[in-house]
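seq as requested:
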Amino acid sequence: MKKTIGYVVAGIGFLILVLSYPAIRVLIKIPSLGISDTYLMIIGAVILLAAAWIISKSSSEKFKEVPIYEGTGKNRRIVGMQRVSE
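struct tokens:
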């Protein structure tokens, strides 16, 4: 769930970063936003960095799976998997 939120925030940050270029605003016919282009670019970059941090934190929550065996020797077979946090 956190990874999805991170991607949404990254999309918003990328959109703000793109809107900091006057040529793109003219192309999509959006008037001036009242904020300096430099500040808009900084805001977009900070939001992108925050999104990257959120995505990286959510991907570090991994579990290692260990097989559960039944029997001994050649008669041993896997009957399930157990998640073990690292």
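Residues 2-61 form one domain.
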